[in-house]
Specification:
Length: about 525
């Protein structure tokens, strides 16, 4: 009896070990790590793990947003997950010393010192590595790359080096207000930002930077200021007036930069800009001979109008234009999470307030974009009335009210910047971690620029774009963006010539209605 019990006990232990062993080796029970989808949706059947073929035509693959025009789709959600990490981006960067050794470019010691110690830059991004040598060699250059990758430094550093060399070689002192380089921008905040970068790079050098923001152009025309100027940074309108009236003279300019060139080449600016650019003797081919008079043209932007070549051929030989572009140009930024929330217009303020308060708790600055100045005003007032430190910035503000607002947001005096697309072009909002599109942009190029306010090379911490989708027109744009995300292809209709697009739509609508708009009354 006792022997039988012992035998049963032994067999029981054996069965226990056998069961455990079988449990371990069963392949079905091995827990594999779950792959994070490229696109996550509230309805999991629309989750995406492997992109569809890039040549898939719109309408041939299922979209999570295909039913978003119906009222029952409210509260639906779609997320583009970040697929590239901070480490991936840093791995593509090149140490400054290694780059200079490879390219045999000699940079002024003070410039290098300021680059490292003032701007805290020790390595160049991929687009900087490609563009710096081209600009340094005096080519006409188009720098076309995603926002936040360091395009300003890509042209600024070699231009400053050339200005220093030219000043050292010049025999006679130049007259006042005769710059060697001109940097033109569409907006005041961007001009101020570029001026600050140039001044930091030029600390303890003899290079003189002058920034003109506009808003007081009449005063400068009546009571002009005269001084040594090597680099002139200005908005296009102010510079055009001051040059026309002779306050600034352009005969010594050897470098012309169009920063945010897509906006400057828009129909809103192109006529005035084209006339202004014809003042410069742009060289027909690059030359290293300093005795030959020739001006270099540089364009920098994250998006470009389709009629760029048509506009530029009036001032340069477009065959001499060297293009430096990024593989991510006109694509969704892969290192930023992007959320699309389908909701009613009435629920947007409450949702906005909840999101902003979460950001404040995390001490993360937020930028809220609206399509119109009136909406931007409303968002700012609504947030301030609910205890949020918000500052408003839009193009309808007077200069004396607008000046300094962006800088105060950057310095941390406000938690939220409520703005229109005037705040989406080129501004280096390195402190911001969250962009909220209270109004979803109706043009894909605007969406690209808004997303580019975060995840910039100066701040590669995890960042987020949250989009409120509340109208049929917004849904139509989102569907096109979703299709590009699912195929890994280019974003559609990235034509930054917004005024031209609007004019064509107006004409199309009027023709459909049987109306004819006289040519002289066209916008």
């Amino acid at each position: 009896m006792l022997q039988t019990s012992k035998t049963n006990a032994v067999f029981g232990i054996f069965r226990l070990y056998a069961t455990a062993a079988a449990t371990v080796i069963k392949p079905k029970q091995i827990q594999k790590p779950k792959q994070k989808p490229l696109i996550s949706c509230k309805r999991s059947q629309f989750n995406l793990y492997v992109p569809a073929p890039e040549d898939s035509e719109f309408g041939t693959i299922p979209l999570a947003t295909s039913g978003w025009k119906h009222y029952k789709s409210k509260d639906d959600l779609m997320i583009f997950n970040a697929s590239v990490s901070k480490q991936d981006i840093l791995a593509e960067m090149q140490e400054i010393e290694e780059y200079l050794k490879e390219t045999n470019i000699c940079l002024n010691e003070k410039l290098l010192e300021n680059l490292r110690n003032v701007l805290n830059i020790t390595a160049f991004t991929s687009i900087q590595s490609k563009a710096i040598s081209k600009v340094y060699d005096s080519h006409h250059v188009l720098i076309a790359a995603e926002t936040g990758c360091g395009k300003t430094l890509a042209y600024m550093l070699p231009i400053l080096q050339r200005v220093i060399e030219r000043k050292q070689a010049q025999q006679n002192k130049r007259k006042y207000n005769t710059p060697l380089a001109v940097i033109i921008t569409p907006g005041r905040e961007l001009a101020a930002q570029i001026g600050v970068v140039a001044e930091k790079l030029c600390e303890d050098t003899d290079v003189q930077i002058k920034t003109i923001l506009g808003g007081n152009t009449k005063r400068l025309m009546v009571n002009p200021e005269f001084s040594d100027v090597d680099i002139l940074v200005s908005t296009v309108g102010a510079l055009s007036k001051l040059v026309t009236t002779g306050v600034y003279r352009m005969e010594n300019v050897r470098h012309v930069v169009l920063d945010e060139a897509d906006t400057l080449l828009d129909d809103s600016f192109s006529d005035k800009l084209g006339y202004f650019l014809r003042r410069f003797p742009f060289h027909k081919n690059h030359t290293q001979d300093e005795q030959i008079v020739g001006t270099q043209l540089i364009l920098a932007s994250a998006t470009m109008p389709t009629n760029t070549e048509e506009i530029l051929q009036k001032v340069i030989d477009v065959q001499t234009l060297h293009e430096v572009s990024s593989p991510n140009l006109h694509k969704l930024m892969p290192h930023i999470e992007q959320r699309f929330l389908r909701m009613s217009k009435q629920s947007r303020p409450t949702t906005l307030l909840n999101l902003v308060k979460k950001d404040i708790a995390k001490r993360q600055p937020t930028i809220v974009f609206s399509n119109k100045s009136a909406t931007s005003d409303f968002v700012d007032i609504f947030l301030n009335n609910n205890g949020v430190r918000s500052v408003n910035l839009n193009g309808d503000m007077l200069m004396k009210i607008r000046v300094g607002r962006f800088e105060r947001f950057q310095e941390g005096n406000y938690d939220v910047l409520s703005t229109t697309d005037v705040g989406s072009r080129g501004l280096d909002t390195t402190n911001a971690r969250h962009v909220i599109n209270f109004d979803f942009p109706l043009h894909v190029s605007d969406y690209i620029h808004r997303c580019g306010r975060i995840g910039r090379v100066g701040n590669l911490k995890p960042s987020l774009v949250t989009n409120f989708i509340s109208s049929r027109r917004e849904v139509e744009v989102v569907q096109r963006i979703e299709h590009a995300a699912r195929t890994g292809g280019l974003l559609p209709d990235v034509n930054a010539n917004i005024k031209n697009i609007i004019n064509k739509r107006i004409m199309k609508d009027m023709e459909a209605a049987g109306m004819v708009l006289p040519e002289e009354e066209a916008f």
